[in-house]
DNA sequence: GCTTTAAAAAGTAAGGT
DNA sequence: ACCTTACTTTCTAAAGC
């Protein structure tokens, strides 16, 4: 019947419009975050897979699009924290987190936990810290993580503390507040992680 | 070495039951002191017992959910108190309503620190959820017994979703042996 | 899906002193 | 800097939206 045919067209158009909306949202957020085009493409692929696997039912298009971008950043090794992602999305942090966990699980993305070292280059450049500080921060993260200090800790707070410690050790001191602001964590978290890290590194200061 | 099973502690028991009679919650709320009833917000009336400490959710259908008790015995004792309170309001309550335990939350201690990153890889990323940016615990779902375990860096863990106290013991046994064969304990 | 109730684990956060 | 309170995760039943 003609009506069924029209309905199919209408549905197809609606689906097409939704997909275009999702992809344009991914593009808009990716631009706002300043991530490379390759990440937007990975995010688009993840979104299309989620669509194909019918994972959007009961969830908002924007939520899935945002989560796909969050996952893509991690997959490409240039993670943005949920806090940073939520600043360019109209979906709240908690919803992005739970949607990400859902699509990650359903699509079998097998995402490894974020390595704090992945945040070092970006945070250090925002703080205008030298390569020497970056190398020192990476060393602190590597060494203390091997000793088991990383379990359960947020990657951003962990990276922030190591950067703070490295800036002190390299005589390029940044205050806890400055580091806390770029990493979007509190000074309390930096203080706590910093104390554990310098103790594990056997540094007196 | 202390057997992790010895460290198991029941933290919460959830059970459901019913008095086999419909209730007018509005009048129960009026007569029962300490009752919280806001049907606009939630259809159940909340009544808390002090000893044993628990919270009972009483519904219009006469069905009741009891949560917060530290043992199955405490669940029975708490519900006995709730039943008596309702009888004092001259509401008919069956002599011994059937009480079904729906969930038991347990905590335990493996006695050694855990490298959650290594455990996440070892158990298989497809079998766990570990997002330290969102929550410090690693979520591990077991098929037998059908429970969920939350593993922490300290070596402590939480087991939930079980219906019998033995479920937690079996779960701890399986987790310990799994981590041992992966060489991730000690 | 949400609403409410309880409880533990450990990390993070916010407000007050 | 401390302390307290509170939110994140997991589970489960109930009735209703």
Automatic annotation (TrEMBL), chain B:
Keywords: DNA-binding, Initiation factor, Protein biosynthesis, Repeat, Transcription, Transcription regulation. Gene3D superfamilies: TATA-Binding Protein. Sequence repeats lie at residues 10-86. It comes from the Archaea. The keyword Transcription regulation applies. One of its GO terms (biological process) is DNA-templated transcription initiation. GO terms for molecular function: DNA binding; DNA-binding transcription factor activity; translation initiation factor activity. Belongs to the TBP family. General factor that plays a role in the activation of archaeal genes transcribed by RNA polymerase. Binds specifically to the TATA box promoter element which lies close to the position of transcription initiation. NCBIfam families: PRK00394.1-2, PRK00394.1-5, PRK00394.2-2. This is TATA-box-binding protein. It comes from Halobacterium hubeiense.
């Amino acid at each position: 019947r003609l009506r069924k045919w029209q309905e199919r067209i209408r549905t197809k158009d609606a689906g097409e419009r939704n997909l275009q909306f999702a992809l344009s949202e991914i593009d808009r957020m990716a631009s706002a975050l300043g991530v490379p085009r390759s990440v937007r493409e990975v995010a688009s692929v993840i979104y299309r897979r989620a669509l194909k696997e019918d994972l959007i039912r009961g969830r908002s298009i924007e939520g899935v699009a945002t989560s796909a971008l969050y996952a893509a950043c991690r997959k490409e090794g240039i993670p943005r924290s949920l806090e940073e992602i939520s600043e360019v999305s109209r979906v709240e942090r908690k919803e992005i987190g739970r949607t990400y966990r859902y699509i990650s699980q359903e699509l079998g993305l097998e995402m490894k936990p974020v390595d704090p070292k992945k945040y070092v280059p970006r945070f250090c450049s925002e703080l205008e810290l030298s390569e020497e500080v970056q190398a020192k921060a990476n060393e602190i993260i590597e060494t203390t993580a091997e000793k088991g200090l990383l379990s359960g800790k947020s990657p951003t707070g962990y990276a922030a503390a190591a950067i703070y410690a490295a800036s002190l050790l390299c005589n390029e001191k940044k205050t806890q507040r400055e580091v806390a602001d770029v990493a979007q964590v509190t000074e309390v978290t930096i203080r706590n992680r910093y104390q554990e890290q310098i103790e594990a590194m056997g540094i007196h200061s | 070495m202390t057997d992790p099973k010895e460290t198991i502690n029941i933290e919460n028991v959830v059970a459901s039951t019913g008095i086999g009679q419909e209730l007018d919650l509005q009048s129960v709320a009026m007569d029962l002191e300490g009752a919280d009833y806001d049907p606009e917000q939630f259809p159940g009336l909340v009544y808390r017992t002090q000893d044993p400490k628990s919270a009972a959710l009483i519904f219009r259908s006469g069905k009741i959910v009891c949560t917060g008790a530290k043992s199955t015995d405490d669940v029975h004792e708490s519900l006995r108190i709730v039943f008596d309170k309702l009888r004092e309001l001259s509401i008919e309550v069956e002599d011994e309503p059937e009480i079904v335990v729906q969930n038991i939350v347990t905590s335990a201690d493996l006695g050694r620190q855990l490298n959650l990153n290594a455990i996440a890889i070892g158990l298989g990323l497809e079998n766990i959820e570990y997002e330290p940016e969102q929550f410090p615990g690693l979520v591990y779902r077991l098929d037998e017994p059908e429970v969920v375990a939350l593993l922490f860096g300290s070596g402590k863990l939480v087991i939930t979703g079980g219906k019998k106290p033995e479920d937690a013991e079996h779960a701890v046994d399986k987790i310990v042996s799994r981590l041992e064969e992966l060489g991730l304990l000690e």
